[in-house]
Amino acid sequence: MRRVVCGLALFVSVASSVAQAQTAAPGAVPAVSHANDAAYLVGAGDVLAVTVYRAPDYNSVVEVAEDGTIVLNAVGRVQASGMTPAQVGNEIVRRLQSGGIFRDPLVNVMVQTYRSRTVSVLGAVGKPGEYPLDRGGLTITEILARAGATLGVGGGTVRVVRRDGTQQDLPAEQLLAGAANQMLQPHDTLIVTESATFYISGEVQRPGNFPLEPGLTMERAIALAGGITQRGARSRLKVTRHEGAADAIVRAKLQDPVKPRDLILVGARLF
């Protein structure tokens, strides 16, 4: 019985809140916006979904025109560009009130499609394409996470191309450390370059392709591959190295640096 009473009380409380919102003084202009849109500034090309509570005939989905306005039935042309969805909703409420259509309408405005404030992500990411700046202060790493970038040690470079054509190359390790992370602006482009890699085979535990860490030596490369096998010899290292248009095979020592696209072969002992 107590649960029934509590549930009834909760229903009455919610119904009362709705009733109060509809009977508020004419000066009040309630408008509700989607949480992610709170700081988003609408621009030309965005598609807005406008809902008037309990008045479905006034609901509409409209695209913001090049002049920054939207056109609604019974309301006319409303300025939208440069405003948050909540501010657009407030203006629609004011128009509905001043036109004598509704006394205290409840209006909800949401961005259905983001087009005016987007950034492009290209290159070595899982999901290249355009991404909306759907809230203020979005940073490079946050957008890269959405695009499925997998940055790590030696994780390549992210080139930031600004709308004015200026460019900046940011090492992945600096971005991950937070030293180079930056806020993005509309129409920025991020180009992710894969990290340099090397390949190691022969008498190692885990032959394969590995990212090239800064300052990597042959000895460290062997360690990354799990170390040598029982038959392996650390002194028997051959490297196929890309030099210009041709490949060269060179002998290497443990302290020699590994270069991008090196093919390292760890040989076996002679006895």
TrEMBL record:
Positions of the Soluble ligand binding domain: 198-242
Keyword terms, alphabetized: Cell outer membrane, Ion transport, Lipoprotein, Membrane, Palmitate, Polysaccharide transport, Porin, Signal, Sugar transport, Transmembrane, Transmembrane beta strand, Transport
Family: Belongs to the BexD/CtrA/VexA family.
Pfam families: Poly_export, SLBB, SLBB_2
InterPro entries per record: Poly_export, Poly_export_N, SLBB_dom, Soluble_ligand-bd
Biological process terms in GO annotation: monoatomic ion transport
Gene3D superfamilies for this protein: Outer membrane lipoprotein wza domain like (3.10.560.10), wza like domain (3.30.1950.10)
Ion transport in keyword set: yes
GO cellular component: cell outer membrane; pore complex
The protein, known as: Polysaccharide export protein EpsE
Every Polysaccharide export protein N-terminal domain range: 36-111
Limits of the SLBB domain: 118-192
